[in-house]
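Budget justification note: compute hours in this period were largely spent on complex prediction jobs such as the one shown. Inputs:
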Amino acid sequence: DAGVIQSPRHEVTEMGQEVTLRCKPISGHDYLFWYRQTMMRGLELLIYFNNNVPIDDSGMPEDRFSAKMPNASFSTLKIQPSEPRDSAVYFCASSLRTGGGFTEAFFGQGTRLTVV
Amino acid sequence: AQKITQTQPGMFVQEKEAVTLDCTYDTSDPSYGLFWYKQPSSGEMIFLIYQGSYDQQNATEGRYSLNFQKARKSANLVISASQLGDSAMYFCAMRDRPRGSGGYQKVTFGIGTKLQVIP
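Corresponding output:
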């Protein structure tokens, strides 16, 4: 398996533009997590899905952020409109529920977003 | 409320020495798991070690061991015989089922500890 795949790896956009980050989880994994990493706040959990259904989006900072998972192999995180304070590295991770809990979260390479 | 606390923003260790990175956690779920990840300067998140709340033995993986003290709610990472390549950010994480989550498992991270290994 290729692991969790995120695209793009880097994104530079102007304030006010829409940004869409993409994630392909590991095949067969039933949990998908979106995290944002900044120096000040570390790794913040934004939203997570189980079997394509959003379970908890309480970490989404504002209504400008939205996430979807239309099927088991694809998820998007959208920011509209983007602002400079959204600049961060965004990680997607997936995991699989097992009888005793679940596997560790497998991370993608991250998307480094810069909003100018 | 902070669920995962890492109180050491930065640590230094001499090459070949052992180092302990602290992590405390808080959960009401009796069935939870604790993870440690390493993030080198290249940015990828590398899974190191896992401890389940019902595991009787402390987890070990090569030079990594987890000092799990359930009553104190701590899960410290011990790296033995430090190497220069161990210089990185280290994150403690917990998976649990928060109240009101309907039994779904959430994974939250601490703020991390930056470890620098000195030759």
